[in-house]
Amino acid sequence: MLELPVTALHLYALNTPERTIMTLKTGFAYHPGYLNHDTGPGHPERPDRLRASLAALQQSDVWDQLHLIEPTPASVEQIVYAHNSAYPEHIRLHCEQEIPLTYDTPVGFESFDIALLSTGGVLRAADAVMTGEVKNAFAMVRPPGHHATSGQSMGFCLFNNIAVAARYLQREHSVGKVAIVDWDVHHGNGTQDIFYEDESVFFFSIHQSPLYPGTGSSRERGSGKAYGTTLNVPMPAGSGDDEYVKVFTDVLVPALRDFSSEFLLISAGFDAHYLDPLSGTELTADGFATLTDLMLELAEETASGHVVSALEGGYSLKGVSESVVAHVERLA
After folding, report:
1. Residue 176 burial (CB < 10 Å; 0-12/13-18/19+)?
2. pTM, whole model, 2 decimals?
3. Got the DSSP string for 56-94?
4. Which residues are catalytic?
5. Is 67 exposed, middle or buried (0-12, 13-18, 19+ CB in 10 A)?
6. Are 263 and 178 in contact, with CB atoms under 8 Å apart?
7. pLDDT above 90: residue 32
Protein backbone atom coordinates (compact mmCIF):
# COMPACT_ATOMS: atom_id res chain seq x y z
CA MET A 1 0.00 0.00 0.00
CA LEU A 2 1.17 3.50 -0.82
CA GLU A 3 2.47 5.17 2.33
CA LEU A 4 1.31 8.80 2.60
CA PRO A 5 2.02 11.50 5.15
CA VAL A 6 -0.75 11.59 7.70
CA THR A 7 -1.35 15.27 6.91
CA ALA A 8 -2.27 14.31 3.36
CA LEU A 9 -4.73 11.61 4.36
CA HIS A 10 -8.02 13.50 4.09
CA LEU A 11 -6.98 15.45 1.01
CA TYR A 12 -6.03 12.20 -0.71
CA ALA A 13 -9.34 10.58 0.23
CA LEU A 14 -11.38 13.49 -1.09
CA ASN A 15 -9.54 13.58 -4.42
CA THR A 16 -9.46 9.84 -5.10
CA PRO A 17 -12.47 8.45 -6.95
CA GLU A 18 -12.35 5.16 -5.04
CA ARG A 19 -12.22 7.10 -1.72
CA THR A 20 -9.28 4.92 -0.68
CA ILE A 21 -8.17 5.75 2.83
CA MET A 22 -4.82 4.68 4.21
CA THR A 23 -4.98 2.32 7.17
CA LEU A 24 -2.84 3.61 10.00
CA LYS A 25 -0.54 1.16 11.71
CA THR A 26 -0.18 0.26 15.36
CA GLY A 27 2.82 1.89 17.01
CA PHE A 28 5.44 -0.13 18.87
CA ALA A 29 7.75 1.72 21.25
CA TYR A 30 10.84 -0.18 22.38
CA HIS A 31 14.48 0.63 23.12
CA PRO A 32 17.35 -1.84 23.66
CA GLY A 33 18.49 0.34 26.54
CA TYR A 34 15.61 -1.12 28.58
CA LEU A 35 17.68 -4.30 28.89
CA ASN A 36 20.35 -2.42 30.86
CA HIS A 37 18.22 -1.90 33.97
CA ASP A 38 20.06 -4.36 36.24
CA THR A 39 17.88 -6.02 38.87
CA GLY A 40 20.42 -8.71 39.71
CA PRO A 41 20.40 -12.50 39.45
CA GLY A 42 17.16 -14.30 40.18
CA HIS A 43 14.95 -11.21 40.15
CA PRO A 44 11.62 -11.82 38.37
CA GLU A 45 11.64 -8.39 36.66
CA ARG A 46 14.57 -9.25 34.40
CA PRO A 47 15.66 -8.22 30.91
CA ASP A 48 14.76 -11.63 29.49
CA ARG A 49 11.08 -10.65 29.76
CA LEU A 50 11.62 -8.13 26.97
CA ARG A 51 14.03 -10.28 24.99
CA ALA A 52 11.50 -13.12 24.85
CA SER A 53 8.61 -10.80 23.99
CA LEU A 54 10.56 -9.01 21.26
CA ALA A 55 11.65 -12.30 19.70
CA ALA A 56 8.07 -13.57 19.72
CA LEU A 57 6.80 -10.39 18.06
CA GLN A 58 9.52 -10.49 15.41
CA GLN A 59 8.62 -14.09 14.59
CA SER A 60 4.89 -13.34 14.37
CA ASP A 61 2.85 -12.17 11.41
CA VAL A 62 2.05 -8.90 13.16
CA TRP A 63 5.63 -7.60 13.16
CA ASP A 64 5.50 -6.20 9.62
CA GLN A 65 2.28 -4.36 10.46
CA LEU A 66 3.88 -2.27 13.23
CA HIS A 67 5.19 1.27 13.05
CA LEU A 68 8.34 1.49 15.16
CA ILE A 69 8.49 4.41 17.60
CA GLU A 70 11.87 5.46 18.97
CA PRO A 71 11.63 6.36 22.67
CA THR A 72 13.39 9.43 24.02
CA PRO A 73 13.77 10.14 27.74
CA ALA A 74 11.06 11.94 29.65
CA SER A 75 12.30 15.10 31.31
CA VAL A 76 12.41 15.49 35.07
CA GLU A 77 9.83 18.26 34.65
CA GLN A 78 7.49 15.75 33.02
CA ILE A 79 8.11 13.15 35.73
CA VAL A 80 6.87 15.59 38.36
CA TYR A 81 3.55 15.88 36.53
CA ALA A 82 2.68 12.78 38.59
CA HIS A 83 5.39 12.67 41.31
CA ASN A 84 6.38 15.13 43.97
CA SER A 85 9.23 17.52 43.22
CA ALA A 86 11.81 15.75 45.41
CA TYR A 87 11.10 12.28 44.06
CA PRO A 88 13.30 12.24 40.91
CA GLU A 89 16.38 13.30 42.89
CA HIS A 90 15.67 10.59 45.46
CA ILE A 91 15.62 7.99 42.66
CA ARG A 92 18.74 9.41 41.03
CA LEU A 93 20.79 9.25 44.22
CA HIS A 94 19.80 5.65 44.92
CA CYS A 95 20.72 4.64 41.38
CA GLU A 96 24.08 6.43 41.45
CA GLN A 97 24.98 4.61 44.66
CA GLU A 98 23.27 1.36 43.57
CA ILE A 99 21.24 1.29 46.79
CA PRO A 100 17.93 -0.62 46.49
CA LEU A 101 14.89 1.63 46.68
CA THR A 102 12.99 -1.05 48.61
CA TYR A 103 13.63 -4.71 49.39
CA ASP A 104 12.04 -5.73 46.08
CA THR A 105 13.19 -2.82 43.92
CA PRO A 106 16.93 -3.00 43.24
CA VAL A 107 18.60 -0.48 40.95
CA GLY A 108 21.88 -0.17 39.09
CA PHE A 109 23.98 2.82 38.08
CA GLU A 110 22.08 3.22 34.78
CA SER A 111 18.61 2.69 36.20
CA PHE A 112 17.68 6.37 36.61
CA ASP A 113 18.32 7.17 32.95
CA ILE A 114 16.60 3.98 31.83
CA ALA A 115 13.55 4.79 33.97
CA LEU A 116 13.34 8.19 32.25
CA LEU A 117 13.56 6.36 28.92
CA SER A 118 10.83 3.93 30.02
CA THR A 119 8.44 6.77 30.80
CA GLY A 120 9.55 8.52 27.62
CA GLY A 121 8.60 5.48 25.57
CA VAL A 122 5.01 5.78 26.77
CA LEU A 123 4.99 9.54 26.12
CA ARG A 124 6.29 9.10 22.57
CA ALA A 125 3.60 6.47 21.97
CA ALA A 126 0.99 8.96 23.20
CA ASP A 127 2.43 11.62 20.90
CA ALA A 128 2.19 9.28 17.91
CA VAL A 129 -1.46 8.53 18.59
CA MET A 130 -2.40 12.16 19.22
CA THR A 131 -0.73 13.40 16.05
CA GLY A 132 -2.31 10.67 13.91
CA GLU A 133 1.00 9.00 13.11
CA VAL A 134 -0.46 5.69 14.33
CA LYS A 135 -3.94 4.48 15.25
CA ASN A 136 -2.92 3.09 18.66
CA ALA A 137 0.32 1.95 20.30
CA PHE A 138 2.00 -0.50 22.64
CA ALA A 139 5.02 0.59 24.67
CA MET A 140 7.14 -2.40 25.67
CA VAL A 141 9.07 -0.72 28.44
CA ARG A 142 10.88 -1.49 31.67
CA PRO A 143 11.14 -0.77 34.51
CA PRO A 144 7.37 -0.95 34.99
CA GLY A 145 5.49 1.76 36.84
CA HIS A 146 2.06 1.17 38.34
CA HIS A 147 3.17 0.57 41.95
CA ALA A 148 5.09 3.87 42.18
CA THR A 149 3.09 6.43 44.17
CA SER A 150 3.66 10.16 44.02
CA GLY A 151 6.56 9.84 46.45
CA GLN A 152 7.40 6.16 46.95
CA SER A 153 8.97 3.52 44.73
CA MET A 154 7.96 -0.10 45.29
CA GLY A 155 7.09 -3.33 43.53
CA PHE A 156 9.87 -3.16 40.89
CA CYS A 157 8.63 0.31 39.82
CA LEU A 158 10.59 3.60 39.71
CA PHE A 159 8.47 6.17 37.84
CA ASN A 160 4.77 5.66 37.23
CA ASN A 161 4.85 5.57 33.44
CA ILE A 162 1.08 5.45 32.92
CA ALA A 163 0.34 8.18 35.47
CA VAL A 164 2.90 10.53 33.93
CA ALA A 165 1.42 9.78 30.50
CA ALA A 166 -2.09 10.69 31.69
CA ARG A 167 -0.88 14.02 33.06
CA TYR A 168 1.23 14.59 29.93
CA LEU A 169 -1.80 14.10 27.69
CA GLN A 170 -3.73 16.62 29.73
CA ARG A 171 -0.96 19.23 30.00
CA GLU A 172 0.77 18.97 26.65
CA HIS A 173 -2.00 17.68 24.37
CA SER A 174 -4.98 19.42 26.03
CA VAL A 175 -6.81 16.15 26.59
CA GLY A 176 -9.62 16.49 29.13
CA LYS A 177 -10.67 13.18 30.63
CA VAL A 178 -8.38 10.13 30.63
CA ALA A 179 -9.28 6.56 31.55
CA ILE A 180 -6.70 4.08 32.85
CA VAL A 181 -7.42 0.34 32.76
CA ASP A 182 -5.01 -1.81 34.77
CA TRP A 183 -5.27 -5.56 34.26
CA ASP A 184 -1.96 -6.48 35.91
CA VAL A 185 -2.55 -9.24 38.46
CA HIS A 186 -1.33 -6.91 41.22
CA HIS A 187 -3.35 -3.86 42.22
CA GLY A 188 -2.08 -0.61 40.66
CA ASN A 189 -1.81 1.11 44.03
CA GLY A 190 0.55 3.82 42.82
CA THR A 191 -1.71 4.93 39.99
CA GLN A 192 -4.72 4.87 42.28
CA ASP A 193 -2.86 6.97 44.85
CA ILE A 194 -1.92 9.63 42.31
CA PHE A 195 -5.46 10.08 40.94
CA TYR A 196 -7.60 9.26 43.98
CA GLU A 197 -8.84 12.85 44.29
CA ASP A 198 -8.81 13.70 40.57
CA GLU A 199 -12.21 13.58 38.86
CA SER A 200 -10.63 14.00 35.41
CA VAL A 201 -8.97 10.55 35.49
CA PHE A 202 -10.90 7.29 35.77
CA PHE A 203 -8.85 4.42 37.24
CA PHE A 204 -9.90 0.79 37.00
CA SER A 205 -7.97 -2.17 38.39
CA ILE A 206 -8.83 -5.85 38.20
CA HIS A 207 -6.42 -7.88 40.30
CA GLN A 208 -6.01 -11.01 42.35
CA SER A 209 -6.84 -10.62 46.02
CA PRO A 210 -5.36 -11.32 48.46
CA LEU A 211 -1.99 -10.57 46.84
CA TYR A 212 0.74 -7.92 46.90
CA PRO A 213 0.46 -5.01 47.64
CA GLY A 214 -2.69 -5.67 49.66
CA THR A 215 -4.65 -2.66 48.42
CA GLY A 216 -7.50 -2.44 45.92
CA SER A 217 -10.63 -3.19 47.91
CA SER A 218 -13.91 -2.60 46.09
CA ARG A 219 -14.62 -0.03 48.82
CA GLU A 220 -11.80 2.20 47.48
CA ARG A 221 -13.80 4.45 45.14
CA GLY A 222 -12.01 7.80 45.11
CA SER A 223 -12.33 10.85 47.34
CA GLY A 224 -14.31 14.09 47.32
CA LYS A 225 -15.50 15.15 43.88
CA ALA A 226 -13.58 12.17 42.46
CA TYR A 227 -15.69 9.62 44.33
CA GLY A 228 -16.70 6.99 41.79
CA THR A 229 -13.78 7.55 39.43
CA THR A 230 -11.81 4.73 41.06
CA LEU A 231 -13.15 1.24 40.42
CA ASN A 232 -11.51 -1.87 41.87
CA VAL A 233 -12.57 -5.45 41.19
CA PRO A 234 -10.60 -7.91 43.33
CA MET A 235 -10.61 -11.45 41.94
CA PRO A 236 -9.98 -14.74 43.76
CA ALA A 237 -7.17 -17.08 42.79
CA GLY A 238 -8.29 -19.44 40.06
CA SER A 239 -10.16 -16.77 38.10
CA GLY A 240 -9.70 -17.16 34.37
CA ASP A 241 -10.75 -15.81 30.98
CA ASP A 242 -14.51 -16.19 31.48
CA GLU A 243 -14.54 -14.43 34.84
CA TYR A 244 -12.41 -11.53 33.60
CA VAL A 245 -14.44 -11.06 30.42
CA LYS A 246 -17.65 -10.99 32.46
CA VAL A 247 -16.25 -8.22 34.71
CA PHE A 248 -15.14 -6.20 31.69
CA THR A 249 -18.47 -6.65 29.92
CA ASP A 250 -20.82 -6.17 32.87
CA VAL A 251 -18.87 -3.72 35.07
CA LEU A 252 -16.06 -1.93 33.29
CA VAL A 253 -17.55 -1.17 29.87
CA PRO A 254 -20.70 0.52 31.29
CA ALA A 255 -18.56 2.54 33.73
CA LEU A 256 -16.21 3.70 30.98
CA ARG A 257 -19.14 4.54 28.74
CA ASP A 258 -20.57 6.74 31.48
CA PHE A 259 -17.21 8.43 32.11
CA SER A 260 -16.67 9.04 28.37
CA SER A 261 -12.92 9.62 28.36
CA GLU A 262 -11.00 11.21 25.50
CA PHE A 263 -8.06 8.82 25.76
CA LEU A 264 -7.64 5.27 27.07
CA LEU A 265 -4.41 4.11 28.69
CA ILE A 266 -3.85 0.44 29.57
CA SER A 267 -1.46 -0.80 32.24
CA ALA A 268 -0.91 -4.07 30.40
CA GLY A 269 0.54 -6.48 32.93
CA PHE A 270 0.45 -10.10 31.78
CA ASP A 271 1.15 -11.74 35.12
CA ALA A 272 -2.44 -12.94 35.43
CA HIS A 273 -1.40 -15.60 32.89
CA TYR A 274 -1.80 -19.16 34.14
CA LEU A 275 1.95 -19.83 33.81
CA ASP A 276 3.06 -16.83 35.86
CA PRO A 277 5.07 -17.72 38.98
CA LEU A 278 3.85 -14.71 40.99
CA SER A 279 0.10 -15.21 40.69
CA GLY A 280 -2.70 -17.72 41.03
CA THR A 281 -5.03 -16.58 38.26
CA GLU A 282 -5.64 -18.57 35.10
CA LEU A 283 -5.82 -16.21 32.13
CA THR A 284 -4.61 -17.28 28.70
CA ALA A 285 -3.18 -15.27 25.82
CA ASP A 286 -6.58 -15.59 24.13
CA GLY A 287 -8.16 -14.07 27.22
CA PHE A 288 -5.91 -11.04 27.02
CA ALA A 289 -6.77 -10.75 23.33
CA THR A 290 -10.47 -10.62 24.20
CA LEU A 291 -9.90 -7.96 26.87
CA THR A 292 -8.01 -5.96 24.25
CA ASP A 293 -10.93 -6.27 21.82
CA LEU A 294 -13.36 -4.99 24.43
CA MET A 295 -11.18 -1.96 25.18
CA LEU A 296 -10.68 -1.14 21.50
CA GLU A 297 -14.42 -1.27 20.87
CA LEU A 298 -15.07 1.00 23.84
CA ALA A 299 -12.34 3.44 22.79
CA GLU A 300 -13.90 3.71 19.34
CA GLU A 301 -17.16 4.74 21.01
CA THR A 302 -15.82 7.31 23.45
CA ALA A 303 -12.21 8.21 22.68
CA SER A 304 -11.86 8.31 18.88
CA GLY A 305 -9.97 5.03 19.13
CA HIS A 306 -7.14 6.66 21.08
CA VAL A 307 -5.41 3.84 22.99
CA VAL A 308 -1.89 3.42 24.36
CA SER A 309 -0.92 0.39 26.40
CA ALA A 310 2.28 0.00 28.37
CA LEU A 311 3.88 -3.17 29.69
CA GLU A 312 3.72 -3.69 33.44
CA GLY A 313 4.23 -7.19 34.92
CA GLY A 314 4.48 -10.67 33.45
CA TYR A 315 7.21 -12.99 34.71
CA SER A 316 6.78 -16.27 32.87
CA LEU A 317 8.79 -15.85 29.67
CA LYS A 318 6.34 -18.02 27.73
CA GLY A 319 3.34 -16.39 29.35
CA VAL A 320 4.41 -12.80 28.81
CA SER A 321 5.71 -13.30 25.28
CA GLU A 322 2.62 -15.10 23.95
CA SER A 323 0.35 -12.61 25.71
CA VAL A 324 2.23 -9.63 24.26
CA VAL A 325 1.83 -11.08 20.77
CA ALA A 326 -1.89 -11.71 21.30
CA HIS A 327 -2.39 -8.17 22.64
CA VAL A 328 -0.46 -6.49 19.83
CA GLU A 329 -2.17 -8.61 17.16
CA ARG A 330 -5.53 -7.27 18.34
CA LEU A 331 -4.26 -3.69 18.48
CA ALA A 332 -3.11 -4.06 14.89
Report:
1. exposed
2. 0.93
3. HHHTSTTGGGEEEE---PPPHHHHTTTS-TTHHHHHHHH
4. 147
5. middle
6. yes
7. yes
